[in-house]
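Q: Entry one of two.
A:
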Amino acid sequence: MRPPLSALAALAAVAALVTGCGAGDDWSRPHPRPTAVGALGAGFVDAARRPRPEATTTPRPGSWNGVHPPADYRVVLLTSGHDRPTRTLVTAVRSWARAEHVSLRTITASGPSDLVPSATRALAMRPDLVISAGNDLIDPLAMVTPNHLAQQFLVVGAELAEPTANVTAVDWSGASFRGEGLGMSSTYDAGSFTDRRCSAAVRAGVAAVLHDLTGIVLWLDRS
């Protein structure tokens, strides 16, 4: 005996809640290595001299606007903290993901003891990119990222003191937190985390990663 249509609809709804994604957003299957849609504009980096890992470069404002992620780009937003800068960064990532039709999932650390486990959960999802928002995650990422060089990370509004080639950061004078051992920058300014700058940081950072300009720091003081 076939179940009634109402029962089938209820089962489908439960399945959707469990998976958290639609049929076109199945992370259980591998997909091709993502490539950029569009090209970097003039002045993003010096075309004759690619920045080396750990280098800091100042891209021309808007030189990243022509770059978009491919279809079904898989991103985990890893976040911790409820301060205004972190909330603004989270909003910027989510707005970017909606505009670009990115497959986005969010992992929020529940407290200090969950910082490293939350990064481990993000790795287990095998995304194309992990985007980190929140200063509390910097020290845990410094521990985790060197052991997972195949996974790309993007840190926005902060940076790792000694990043490996798989960690790209976007920073500016009012941000630049580099871990508890170094303390907060003397120029730190929570007010510098504006909607516009955070949005630019996300787009510029993703554009760099998609063009294999990784392990560097993008400095956005002019944005």
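Q: Entry two of two.
A:
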Amino acid sequence: MGRIAGVTAAETRDRLLRAAAGVFAERGYDGTRVADIAAAAGVSNGALYAHFGSKGELLVAALRAHGRQMLAELVAADPERPITESLLIIGRWLPRRRDARGHLVVEALVAARRDADVARPMHDYMGERAAVLEELVRAAQAGGEMDGALSPEAVAHFCLLLAMGSVLVPPEMHGVGDEEWSALLTRVVAAFAPAGPAPARPAQARPEPGEPAGPEAETGGTR
């Protein structure tokens, strides 16, 4: 079983990536052989190695090709949407994610800790994801949407930790209510906004009967 007649090299590569995504998600990195992926793609082992140097390289290539780039999709769909709003949309979705592509991320993260063939391309992949986030943060800062004093690298790292953590701790292991999670994220993202002048306090502000006194009165009873 060699190269399939009438199939271009690009088509063969795409077949291999789709087959790899499915087999890795089903069997895991350690449980998958190169021969399994080649068979699923309908090509020979030699044809596979003509496109990818190792199983680890193929794993990360499958992740890069089939991993969902939700933030990029949101920005492309509505370039006028504020970046912080896009971050909130994705953040609210994370605890509910049940995307089979998430299995690829888990396999790659675990395999990268003990296999240099995975660690090297995975390092590059994570760098690419971080670079996209950093660019969006800088755009938000330039537009006055985010505090310019924030480090784009730190914000990107924080977002990556949330995204990667969501696949390592799926909702069936530990869940949280949608309203609670959304409220927390809203507070976190609000902290990214530029610092403004403190609102002026009334000179003789007194609480009405039945209203809370002290700091709570200034926030309507909530903190």
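A: Comment on entry two: The chain is about 60% helix and 0% strand. The longest helix spans residues 116-142.
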